[in-house]
Amino acid sequence: MTSIDVFVVINILSNRSKWTFYFLSSVQFNFTIGEKYFPPNDNIDYSQISQELNQAFYDNDVKKAKELKLKILNTKHMSTELRDRANLIIAVLNAKDDKTDTAAVKQAMHDFFKHQEWMNDENAIVLLSNSIRKDNLNDVTRLVMMLIRKYKDLKEQSLIKQRRLATVGINYLYVLRKYFMDSDKVAFKILSWLESLATDPELCLLRELTLYFYFIYTNDDQAEGIKLILDQSGYKKISDNLPD
């Protein structure tokens, strides 16, 4: 796993909120699907602001994100998608654990994910995985189930897409287990989906995390064994922060 396309569980290694995962990816997110909502690739102004906005999200820089939102609002013919994405990023970055502006995050997610073509864009899927939190889990559940219905067999997708889709599932399971421990039915639906990941070395970490979440519902000893393996493999902070 050696390129910028490789995702590594990193949020719990970062300065972000302690209870959310996110995965590193190329910061050059290009939302390019659809003609009515997502702009074409040849829109230079859009492309530059898009990259700067996603860099601000990557850097956890809410001040920069707000500056870019003003630039978007003051630039003629700028896309609605970019404005909605800025609102969502700002809402997520502003959220602090239980002191969450739930209404802001919920409205921003509604505005962005109401366009069903988001499921065809790999980077939109990454944005969803970064937006999963305790207070919007009910809304996120609907979106995750949409992905499960669309991508029933993960191994049929490219490795990059499998990583991004599985990241959504792992992040969802993390928040679900940490705050809603009795939601076994939903957890096993997600786990069943994640089991369809290809047995490829590049997906090894995701498959190990899937096993961990399976065993915390079925076999505590096995779950502790996986935590130990992660710890000894150099993922100590991930291991230490996994929910029991």
Protein architecture, described:
This protein has 244 residues and is mainly alpha-helical. Helix content is 59%, strand content 0%. It contains 11 helices and no strands. It has helices at 44-58, 62-73, 80-94, 102-113, 122-130, 137-150, 159-179, 184-194, 204-218, 220-232, 236-241.
Shape: elongated
Beta-strand content estimate: under 5%
Give the number of DSSP strands: 0
In DSSP terms (H or I, runs of 4 or more residues), the helix count works out at 11
Radius of gyration: 18 Å
Oligomer: single chain
> What would the average pLDDT be, to the nearest integer?
79
| SS content category | mainly alpha
Weakly predicted, low-confidence segments: 1-35
SSE topology sketch:
Layout: H1 44-58, H2 62-73, H3 80-94, H4 102-113, H5 122-130, H6 137-150, H7 159-179, H8 184-194, H9 204-218, H10 220-232, H11 236-241
What characteristics describe this protein?
244 residues; mainly alpha; 0% strand
Give the structure's gist in a few sentences.
By secondary structure, the chain is an all-alpha fold.
